């Protein structure tokens, strides 16, 4: 550059211009004019050549001064251009060298220089600062598949062997928690920590629970240590009535036969819906007690087996509803409205067969198929059954174990992968499989980060929950403890519980936001049961129609319905045959290994979960398909539309509800346009757009209800009169029986649904000054 300056100087004036600072002061003494020049700091002090402090020279004519000034200006401009070009070429060369793929494998080094942050005297200022490598998605997916090991999964599951019970808060649960904590630490996760909760649980007492037939001499049919948590404690008597699966339709069928259920003890078989929902239906029908069994028609080879269960129609600790059960918290004297208030017990199919043999009333309905002989609905007129429940309440401390791989750009945004750890019996299928997959994913993803140099943009949290058997207590208490922040930080929950219960089919429950990602993931994971093809081929192109609604017994349910966090829960099963040992003392590793290709299926489940987690933390834009909810809303509109005239006859209209749906559709279009027109490399803009995507699920929680009184506020997946399903049921009732409809409640339902959808549309559209007046 010095040579260039000298050449340009000589070119224009023939004399070098080496001054670094100067000023021109014209002095008019007669005909003589002088120019005073102040030299650089070195020259002011005499300089290296011993120049005087001031130098005087005769001023040239006026035209010469103007000409020199022009030359100086042109020279300065040229110097700036040359400097810029040289700097650009130098930076471009370094950038091309830095961004060149190392070995053509898909891993590229991005190492722009940061010399402006260094000291000028630093000898290493010209060295390139190493940056984390950028992984293209195909390479990352390949690494995950390569690292996952069926052998390691088998080793993880083997830790479940020899344990008769891993009951929450007991020694086996605590030792398993310590083992998981040690494993997370050995994987060198960025953070490993415990979360303590102090909860109330109902467990079996010192005396066994009994079912007997009353008469001249009481005959005990069953006496067992197996119990149903949160049952009413004490003894009740009543006539036995069989109600199939305990569905609302089953109870309605009984009542249509003019059979009263008041004061009865109902009998139903497992399946279709959760035990808690069956018990709630029984209570509503007027029953005082309930018995549930495993019917051989649905559960093969289960004679004599008695399943555990809980009867709380909700999740979390039912004695601290809406409050996190942290230590030293003062809880108000309240309890969940989901507690059954009737006696509940599970029994074996052998005991139910004995009851049927003593019941000479009406035979079971033809559609109520059962493999038990002499299936009866009603007993003899003088036959009564006595149910005695001796459960007790206890206070216990439980631990949730967490480990985290922190993101490099947005560490405060995370996907959570979780699995239940506790079980009443050995729990190989119920909790062992999920825990084994959780540990394997933590190991593999940590290895990819530590050994391969991959850095996720967002964080991945691995969670091991306790007290899942009692209704996702550990997970729910954690959500309640951080309810004000989690919805803005956790953007997906992946549930690993009971991931392998068979080998023929796949069962999927998920938020619509994850349908697209789940479909692409299954399309990229090989089916372990076939030589060729993917899991997508197994579920079919119309798999969305077979999505199973989340039940209260699924740990993902409170994440979605309570906290508004998108979830996915999936697993292998046999559609025509339930896994017979789930929730029993026979849920052992030995029985689980009877499933064909067990460890290959576990590996496939791990690959699906791992790909979802990595994809959500890899891409610039969150891979959540917010447009899917437009389709869900349209589907509900089509179901509601036939009742338009019926509603209009009552002086109401469905137009505002339909307008809100249209607003949401337009809001999704606005967000798509904003994403398409945005600079994806701009972190501030990208984060703002991802914020809008993250809020979609949360905005479908009705803001007009108290989470303490109505915890599951989601209008699609929640529980209560605020849901779209409840609105649809009320409209159906309006068409068949106008007098039985509470019109005030119907108006409230329409208002709540309309403004919840409208609010979701406004939030999706962006800032209030960007919201189109049409919305």
Automatic annotation (TrEMBL):
Membrane disposition: Single-pass type II membrane protein
Domain Transferrin receptor-like dimerisation residue range list: 657-764
Keyword vocabulary terms for this entry: Cell membrane, Disulfide bond, Endocytosis, Glycoprotein, Lipoprotein, Membrane, Palmitate, Phosphoprotein, Receptor, Signal-anchor, Transmembrane, Transmembrane helix
Protein function: Cellular uptake of iron occurs via receptor-mediated endocytosis of ligand-occupied transferrin receptor into specialized endosomes. Endosomal acidification leads to iron release. The apotransferrin-receptor complex is then recycled to the cell surface with a return to neutral pH and the concomitant loss of affinity of apotransferrin for its receptor. Transferrin receptor is necessary for development of erythrocytes and the nervous system. Acts as a lipid sensor that regulates mitochondrial fusion by regulating activation of the JNK pathway.
Membrane-traversing stretches: 69-91
Highest taxon of source: Eukaryota
CDD domains to which the protein is assigned, alphabetical: M28_TfR, PA_TfR
Keyword Phosphoprotein listed: yes
Record-stated family: Belongs to the peptidase M28 family. M28B subfamily.
Protein name, entry field: Transferrin receptor protein 1
One GO MF term attached to the UniProt entry: transferrin receptor activity
Xref: InterPro entries: PA_dom_sf (IPR046450), PA_domain (IPR003137), Peptidase_M28 (IPR007484), Peptidase_M28B (IPR039373), TFR-like_dimer_dom (IPR007365), TFR-like_dimer_dom_sf (IPR036757), TfR1/2_PA (IPR037324)
CC terms in the record's Gene Ontology section: external side of plasma membrane; melanosome
Signal peptide (from-to): none
Gene3D superfamilies: 3.50.30.30, Transferrin receptor-like, dimerisation domain, Zn peptidases
Ranges for domain PA: 236-297
Domain Peptidase M28: 400-594
Protein's cellular compartments: Cell membrane; Melanosome
PTM section of the record: Stearoylated.
A GO BP entry: intracellular iron ion homeostasis
């Amino acid at each position: 550059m010095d040579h260039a300056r000298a050449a340009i100087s000589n070119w224009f004036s023939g004399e070098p211009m080496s001054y670094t600072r100067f000023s021109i002061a014209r002095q008019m003494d007669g005909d003589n004019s002088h120019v005073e020049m102040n030299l650089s700091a070195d020259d002011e002090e005499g300089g290296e050549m011993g120049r005087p402090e001031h130098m005087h020279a005769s001023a040239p004519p006026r035209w010469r001064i103007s000409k020199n000034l022009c030359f100086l200006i042109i020279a300065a401009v040229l110097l700036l251009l040359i400097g810029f070009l040289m700097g650009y070429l130098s930076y471009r060369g370094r950038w091309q060298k830095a961004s060149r793929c190392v070995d053509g494998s898909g891993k590229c080094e991005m190492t722009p220089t940061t010399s402006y942050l260094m000291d000028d005297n630093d000898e290493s200022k010209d060295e390139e600062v190493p940056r984390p490598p950028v992984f293209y998605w195909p390479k990352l997916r390949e690494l995950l598949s390569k690292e996952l090991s069926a052998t390691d999964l088998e080793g993880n599951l083997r830790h479940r062997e020899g344990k008769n019970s891993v009951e929450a808060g007991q020694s086996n649960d605590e030792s398993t928690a310590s083992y998981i904590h040690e494993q997370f630490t050995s994987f060198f996760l960025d953070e490993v920590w415990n979360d303590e909760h102090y909860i109330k649980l109902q467990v079996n007492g010192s005396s066994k629970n009994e079912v007997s037939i009353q008469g001249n001499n009481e005959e005990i049919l069953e006496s067992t240590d197996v119990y149903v948590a949160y049952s009413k404690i004490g003894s009740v008597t009543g006539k036995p009535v069989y109600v199939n699966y305990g569905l609302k339709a089953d109870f309605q069928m009984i009542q249509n036969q003019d059979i009263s259920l008041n004061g009865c003890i109902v009998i139903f078989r497992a399946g279709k819906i959760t035990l808690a929902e069956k018990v709630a239906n029984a209570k509503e029908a007027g029953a005082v007690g309930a018995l549930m069994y495993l019917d051989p028609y649905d559960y093969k080879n289960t004679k004599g087996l008695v399943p555990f269960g809980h009867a709380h129609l909700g999740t979390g600790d039912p004695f601290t509803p809406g409050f996190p059960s942290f230590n030293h918290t003062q809880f108000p004297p309240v309890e969940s409205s989901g507690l059954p208030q009737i006696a509940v017990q599970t029994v074996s199919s052998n005991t139910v067969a004995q009851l049927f043999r003593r019941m000479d009333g009406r035979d079971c309905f033809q559609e109520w198929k059962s493999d038990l002989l002499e299936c009866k609905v009603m007993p003899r007129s003088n036959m009564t059954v006595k149910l005695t429940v001796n459960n007790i309440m206890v206070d216990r401390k439980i631990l949730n174990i967490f480990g985290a791989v922190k993101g490099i750009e947005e560490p405060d945004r995370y996907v959570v992968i979780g699995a239940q750890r506790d079980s009443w019996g050995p729990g190989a299928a119920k909790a062992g499989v999920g825990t084994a997959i959780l540990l394997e994913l933590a190991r593999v993803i940590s290895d990819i980060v530590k050994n391969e140099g991959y850095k996720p943009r967002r964080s991945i949290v691995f969670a091991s929950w306790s007290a899942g058997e009692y209704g996702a207590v550990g997970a729910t208490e954690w959500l309640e403890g951080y309810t004000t922040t989690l919805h803005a930080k956790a953007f997906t929950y992946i549930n690993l519980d009971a991931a392998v219960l068979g080998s023929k089919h796949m069962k999927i429950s998920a938020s619509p936001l994850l349908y697209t990602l789940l479909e692409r993931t299954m399309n990229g994971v090989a089916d372990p049961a076939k030589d060729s093809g993917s899991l997508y081929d197994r579920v079919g192109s119309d798999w969305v129609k077979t999505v199973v609604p989340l039940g209260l017994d699924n740990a993902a349910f409170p994440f979605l319905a309570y906290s508004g966090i998108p979830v996915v829960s999936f697993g292998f099963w046999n559609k025509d045959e339930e896994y017979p040992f789930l929730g029993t003392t026979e849920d052992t590793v030995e029985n689980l290994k009877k499933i064909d290709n067990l460890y290959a299926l576990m590996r496939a489940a791990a690959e699906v979960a791992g790909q979802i987690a990595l994809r959500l933390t890899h891409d610039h834009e969150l891979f959540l398909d917010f447009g899917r909810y437009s389709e869900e809303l349209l589907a509900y509109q089509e179901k509601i539309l036939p009742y338009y005239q019926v509603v209009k006859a009552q002086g109401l209209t469905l137009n505002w509800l339909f307008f809100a749906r249209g607003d949401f559709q337009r809001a999704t279009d606005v967000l798509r346009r904003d994403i398409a027109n945005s600079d994806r490399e701009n972190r501030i803009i990208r984060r703002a757009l991802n914020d809008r995507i993250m809020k979609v699920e949360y905005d479908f929680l009705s803001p007009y209800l108290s989470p303490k009184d109505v915890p599951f506020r989601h209008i699609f997946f929640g529980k209560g009169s605020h849901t779209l399903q409840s609105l649809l049921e009320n409209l159906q009732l309006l068409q068949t029986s106008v007098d039985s409809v509470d019109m005030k409640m119907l108006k409230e339902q329409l208002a709540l649904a309309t403004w919840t959808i409208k609010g979701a549309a406004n939030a999706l559209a962006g800032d209030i000054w960007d919201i189109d007046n049409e919305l």
